[in-house]
């Protein structure tokens, strides 16, 4: 009797564990894989003046013949267009360039901030973390509009510089890539600081003390101990800011000029202005591959390295 009860409990426990593990996979299937398949299908379609604005459509009422006609109507013309039209690949390259420069700027700014937070007294660290995440309490759109008021020729920055006599005429920062860099760095800097802080805060200070006892100067101990041990935070922070920066739309649309090309803005124009859903879907699929493939390769390399150490 006792064995039967134990077996029943073990079976129910195993079933509950499988259900618990299956929940995130079901979530990914419904909210990631299924929408991606739909977008991929639209990217293989052709634009038309209809509702929805693409063809072919799958007609199950026609039976197997309808499936065959639907399959034969799919093609890669939209992806060919992306490689032939200068607008699209220039937008991709410009987005990557702006995202890389913004990521480097955030790393240069965020690392000293995170280091200072990690070396601050423990009693004030929570307040410093709160100060970093405080901007998230306000909408991104409102914060970007605030930068318009700061960077415009009649804005606060020019007014202050003119008042101090540093400049004699207003600086034209709005509608330039400089304004885009400022907006992206400001908006995503917390995503760089927090992973760096998490890595630096866990750093064993006895390692630095041992290095000092062995005669290592502080700057050398920093480069040989602190920086290598914080690499996981650096990589996590770079991924967290680089990925959304590549597809950013709001910041370049509001702060950048007409010559500031980014793939998010190009995708928006194709989808809402040109109503070319197939081309915009192809842009989205290619952008996803550009971002996901390097991450997958990196994770694979990391997993092999961990297996090798084990």
Automatic annotation (TrEMBL):
Residue intervals passing through the bilayer: 20-44, 89-115, 127-148, 179-200, 221-246, 277-298
User: SUPFAM superfamilies attached here?
Assistant: MetI-like
Q: Where in the cell is it found?
A: Cell membrane
User: Which Gene3D superfamilies does its entry note?
Assistant: MetI-like (1.10.3720.10)
Among Pfam families, the record links this protein to:
BPD_transp_1
Q: Does the keyword Chaperone apply?
A: no
Of which family is this protein a member?
A: Belongs to the binding-protein-dependent transport system permease family. CysTW subfamily.
User: What protein does this entry describe?
Assistant: ABC transporter permease subunit
């Amino acid at each position: 009797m006792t064995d039967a009860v134990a077996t029943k409990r073990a079976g129910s426990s195993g079933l509950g564990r499988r259900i618990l593990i299956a929940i995130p996979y079901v979530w990914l299937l419904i909210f990631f894989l299924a929408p991606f398949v739909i977008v991929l299908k639209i990217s293989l379609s052709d634009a038309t003046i209809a509702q929805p604005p693409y063809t072919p459509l799958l007609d199950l009422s026609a039976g197997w013949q309808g499936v065959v006609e639907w399959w034969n109507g799919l093609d890669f013309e939209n992806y060919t267009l992306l490689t032939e039209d200068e607008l699209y690949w220039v937008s991709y390259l410009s987005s990557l360039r702006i995202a890389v420069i913004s990521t480097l700027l955030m790393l240069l700014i965020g690392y000293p901030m995170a280091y200072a937070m990690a070396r601050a007294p423990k009693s004030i660290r929570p307040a410093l973390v709160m100060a970093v995440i405080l901007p998230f309490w306000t909408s991104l759109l409102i914060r970007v509009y605030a930068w318009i008021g700061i960077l415009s020729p009649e804005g606060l920055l020019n007014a202050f510089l003119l008042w101090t006599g540093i400049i004699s005429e207003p600086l034209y920062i709005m509608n330039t890539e400089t304004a885009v860099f400022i907006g992206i760095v400001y908006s995503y800097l917390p995503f760089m600081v927090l992973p760096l802080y998490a890595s630096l805060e866990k750093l064993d200070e006895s390692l630095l003390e041992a290095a000092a006892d062995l005669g290592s100067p502080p700057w050398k101990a920093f480069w040989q101990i602190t920086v290598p041990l914080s690499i996981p935070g650096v990589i996590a922070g770079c991924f967290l800011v680089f990925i959304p920066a590549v597809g950013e739309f709001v910041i370049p649309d509001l702060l950048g000029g007409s010559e500031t090309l980014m793939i998010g803005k190009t995708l928006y124009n194709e989808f809402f202005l040109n109503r070319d859903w197939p081309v915009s879907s192809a842009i989205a699929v290619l952008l996803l591959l550009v971002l996901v493939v390097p991450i997958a390769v990196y994770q694979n390399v990391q997993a092999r390295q961990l297996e090798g150490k084990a």
